């Protein structure tokens, strides 16, 4: 557990630096998509059709991520890189609270054939924290916290982003689990010690960024 937490923290710091460092650095996220593609094509048990669909899925998400990063007229946000960082933060919040909620209160399996440990209770708690705490944090970052009690005046991003990520993140996790199940593997690779491969680490972000790119931009 200590090793997992240490590498998880390092991963989060690197992602934060990539999204915030310079105007071009979020483009480095394309390396993650390339890593995911490599892992998918390395899964020998996958059929050609599954690999093709997975490839289209990943490329669509990569294009959406690029579109979010390149958009320069976000209301109340300085850059697309910050928006991508918020997507990551909301994904981490969703995953973490779904895990905690599932451990404490989880009883009803969410998708037992894909991910036996995930529960509806955990997914609901993850969504509630993503929307509630995530929205609060975004309002604080946008210096609009005084508007918390006035939903009609919230900046659109403060409620749209948590809602979208809160729903898309757990589904993205299940999509990646489906791919791995079809390939007969537990982890997609060994990109991050104690965490697995690129697909394991970016599974929720892949779908979340795709939906954000479609619905918000």
What does the model show?
It is a single chain. Helix content is 69%, strand content 4%. With 217 residues, it is mainly alpha-helical. The chain has a two-stranded antiparallel sheet with strand order 1-2. Strand 1 (109-111) and strand 2 (115-119) form a beta hairpin. The chain starts with a helix and ends with a helix. The mean pLDDT is 89.
Write a short abstract of this structure:
The chain has 217 residues and is mainly alpha-helical.
Largest sheet: 2 strands, antiparallel
Strand content: under 5%
Helix content bin? 55-70%
Give the SSE string: HHHHEEHHH
Number of strands: 2
Distance between the termini: 38 Å
With strands numbered from the N-terminus, the spatial order across the biggest sheet is 1-2
Please state the CA-atom Rg, rounded to the nearest Å.
Answer: 17 Å
Total helical segments: 7
List the helices and strands and how they pair.
Layout: H1 2-20, H2 29-42, H3 48-70, H4 80-105, E1 109-111, E2 115-119, H5 120-141, H6 156-183, H7 198-215
Antiparallel strand pairs: 1-2
What features would you highlight for this structure?
mainly alpha, 217 residues, 7 helices, two-stranded antiparallel ribbon, 2 strands
